[in-house]
Amino acid sequence: MEEVQRHSVHTLVFRSLKRTHDMFVSNQGALPEIDEKLDKMRKAIKARDSYSLVFERVSKALELKQLNPTTGAEEPQILAITNGPTTSGSKSNDTNSQAIVPVTENYQSTVAGLIKTTTTTTNSGMQLIPKKAPSIPKPTWHAPWKLSRVISGHLGWVRCIAVEPGNEWFATGAGDRVIKIWDLASGKLKLSLTGHVSTVRGLAVSNKHPYLFSCGEDRQVKCWDLEYNKVIRHYHGHLSAVYSLALHPTIDVLATSGRDSTARIWDMRTKANIHTLTGHTNTVASVVAQEFNPQIITGSHDSTIRLWDLAAGKSVCTLTNHKKSVRSLVIHPKLYMFASASPDNIKQWRCPEGNFVQNVSGHNAIVNCMAVNQDGVLVSGGDNGTMFFWDWRTGYNFQRFQAPVQPGSMDSEAGVFAMAFDQSGSRLITAEADKTIKIYKEDDEATEESHPVNWRPDILKRRKF
């Protein structure tokens, strides 16, 4: 038996390379010379295919110029290909056949001018001028925000905020079971409303009636008449704690959601339970209402967002993009969009189908609340007391800070539970775990030079314009 000759790995690798080279050397040899005639024909076909409409207009313009010459001297002619009729008198039966037209020396400038004035698409829908490549928009400059006032008065965690439509006062609800009404300008306490027997978790003020609506962990939903400062209606039906409520902007209905995994729609006046929106499999932490379809949007601890048809009382769409609990939803006051917050991401969506727009990434905490104003400033508040300020359009984070805790409170009580802009969008009110209410405003002294936009766009960021 013959002994197999052993070679080094180096030798074997180079033999393999040589074999591969010999196999493909015929494909990589000298390329044949380009046939100039065929190359010109190819370019002519491509020009006719892309710019036939332009060439037709050029040939017609030159025909008119030759019929009515402005100068006596004959200009030198250059041949150009078009699919229109020939100008030399010969006729073609095929309308798509090539024709030779005379072109003046300033042919290129004539074509360029006509391309600008010609519509970008032909009758068949073919595009003549390519679209401009999409560019990532630059974020709008926003002034940084600073702490303006700290209001203390509650004896428990402050869980919810509602600003009155007239922008004169705002209401807060807390773990001490009391609803307090504060003067927005001075920060002084105007009124305390007692009636809940557990933590107040949601507040809303009607913009058409002198009513304040509240809900809490005692399963109660109350309607307060602010002219008499007393409860005039109760809405019974929830089987567990009620965590959120929202008023419809145009219809006299109230939406509530809670720990029984449902959202309920109530007739504001008759107290009737119009719809019980079922489908979520865990606590429904947030509900918002908007004027157009779908009118009700809910976010749940089951990591889904549902868009509901208010007329039919059925789920139109279920968004499953989030991987963790959705604790907050906010609707943009101007754009037909909304945002949802979860520990994995803040996501923006386009109504009414719930089309995904973009991720707003960076707030790595349990995001309890969000607020957005007319200038496109989106604010998110975390369970660890962090606050992030974003540009809505681009998702650029232009400011972040840790909310200062009240002296004497524990560091673990640095949590932001609720936030709301006032009606002008110039004041931000936050409800926090240190039992205080903080009011922020924009820094009037800040300029684009002192606080520049340090924007580094993420090339891989997915955004659907």
Reconstruct the topology from this structure.
Layout: H1 9-24, H2 36-67, E1 78-82, E2 99-103, H3 107-117, E3 145-152, E4 158-163, E5 169-174, E6 178-183, E7 189-194, E8 200-205, E9 211-216, E10 221-225, E11 230-234, E12 242-247, E13 253-258, E14 263-267, E15 273-277, E16 284-289, E17 296-300, E18 305-309, E19 314-319, E20 328-331, E21 337-341, E22 346-350, E23 355-360, E24 367-372, E25 377-382, E26 386-391, E27 396-402, E28 416-421, E29 427-432, E30 436-442
Antiparallel strand pairs: 1-2, 3-30, 4-5, 5-6, 6-7, 8-9, 9-10, 10-11, 12-13, 13-14, 14-15, 16-17, 17-18, 18-19, 20-21, 21-22, 22-23, 24-25, 25-26, 26-27, 28-29, 29-30
Describe the structure in your own words.
- With 465 residues, the protein is mostly beta strands.
- 13% of the residues lie in helices and 37% in strands.
- The chain contains 3 helices and 30 strands.
- It has helices at 9-24, 36-67, 107-117; strands at residues 78-82, 99-103, 145-152, 158-163, 169-174, 178-183, 189-194, 200-205, 211-216, 221-225, 230-234, 242-247, 253-258, 263-267, 273-277, 284-289, 296-300, 305-309, 314-319, 328-331, 337-341, 346-350, 355-360, 367-372, 377-382, 386-391, 396-402, 416-421, 427-432, 436-442.
- The chain has a 4-stranded antiparallel sheet with strand order 3-30-29-28, with no helix packed on it.
- Strand 14 and strand 15 (273-277) form a beta hairpin.
- Helix 2 packs across helix 3.
- The longest helix has 32 residues, at 36-67.
- It is elongated, with a radius of gyration of 34 Å.
- The protein starts with 8 loop residues before the first helix and ends in a 23-residue tail after the last strand.
- Mean pLDDT is 83; it is low at 71-105 and 117-126.
